[in-house]
Specification:
The protein has 14 helices and 13 strands. The chain is an alpha/beta fold. The strands form 5 sheets. Strands 3-6-9-1-10 form a 5-stranded parallel beta sheet. A two-stranded parallel sheet has the order 2-11. Helix 10 runs parallel beside helix 12 and helix 12 runs antiparallel to helix 14.
């Protein structure tokens, strides 16, 4: 008998399962964080939800858009809404890798080398205009983002959970930017775009930020310890076998599409499923649906793939190609024993 698509699965509390928390706690906290961010970011609830999804899924986000649409404000708002350690790294052409990871300095008094942590040592790291630094400096983030650790002079230093990099970048057509290496882009769970606000939202923005208060009205609504518990709760959201197969089929479709010269990696499949777990939990569900994967396919997959020259000539961007593939890949059959 085939496994049902939707299984009423309730995880058994274990060593890694925060038994004292329930999905209702997660939903309530998420609503508070979204409301806090919404008090300074006008009219972008969908972007806020995606960012919160990445946080709960232990992922990192890349916010790409033209200057002045609130990329840095969103990144700082996420950090401000959570009472945790926050560091901001302003990426510039002269930024060195040691400024990001840290450096060992010789102490004349103790006659020993002491490690001076870099900007990456925080729960939430805001990387502003990441593509204005050289590829060498950008690559300093590779180990940090994937393994949550930093290795300097042969010594490994672990980063405290929760750990999230929120990077902003301008489109590569802008002056003075370096394109992110493929390996760097692949470590970001999602790429988000702010877009221009509607006229009414822009008027509200003038009322809200016309006095130049910035983030002053935003107060933390949760802390790092509680967020870490919610992250552990999300890990136990159930993913049925047909849903796993559907996620693999979506990423595999990008590898065979004639419009793409580089498809999504296996890491993309893992990120898609992890993000879908968090997305489902925000709806108060203990299981993932095909709709969750479809809603996340573009933000999770589009920045990892490269269109062919022919697709670019036809003005077919990565997001459009992924959206079409989502429509073409067959969905799992609905469960009969729901």
């Amino acid at each position: 008998m085939p496994e049902p698509l939707i299984h009423r699965h309730r995880a058994t509390p274990g060593a890694d399962h925060p038994a004292e928390l329930a999905l209702t706690d997660l939903v309530e906290t998420a609503e508070q964080v979204q409301a806090a961010i919404g008090s300074v970011i006008e009219g972008k609830p969908e972007v806020t939800r995606l960012a919160l999804t990445a946080l709960l899924a232990e992922g990192h986000i890349l916010i790409e858009d033209v200057p002045g649409v609130g990329k840095t404000m969103l990144a700082k708002s996420i950090a401000r809404a959570i009472d945790c350690s926050v560091r901001r790294i302003q990426f510039t052409p002269d930024l060195m890798p040691s400024d990001v990871t840290g450096v060992s300095v010789f102490n004349q008094e103790s006659r020993e080398f002491e490690f001076k942590p870099g900007g990456i040592f925080a729960n939430i790291v805001v990387g502003d205009e990441i593509n204005r630094a050289s590829p060498k400096t950008q690559s300093a983030l590779l180990e940090c983002m994937e393994e949550h650790q930093v290795t300097v002079d042969g010594t490994t230093y672990h980063l405290e959970p929760p750990f999230m990099v929120v990077a902003t970048q301008n489109p590569i057509e802008m002056e003075g930017t370096y394109p992110l290496p493929e390996a760097q882009r692949d470590r970001f769970m999602m790429r988000l775009s702010m877009g221009y606000p509607s006229p009414s939202d822009e008027i509200d923005m003038i009322d809200t930020h016309g006095s130049n208060l910035g983030l002053d009205p935003l107060e933390p609504v949760t802390d790092a310890a509680h967020v870490h518990k919610l992250v552990r709760l999300v890990r136990h959201v159930y993913v049925a076998e047909p849903i796993k197969q559907y996620a693999v089929a979506l990423t595999a479709a990008t590898r065979t599409s004639p419009e793409l010269r580089l498809g999504a990696s296996p890491r993309a499949t893992l990120h898609l499923v992890r993000a879908a777990k968090a997305w489902a939990s925000l709806d108060g569900r203990e299981y993932v649906l095909p709709d969750d994967l479809q809603a996340l396919a573009v933000p999770v997959l589009a920045h990892r793939i490269l269109p062919t020259a022919e697709a670019q000539i036809g003005r077919r961007g990565a997001a459009e190609v992924v959206a079409d593939l989502v429509q073409q890949v067959p969905q799992p059959e609905p469960s009969q024993g729901r």
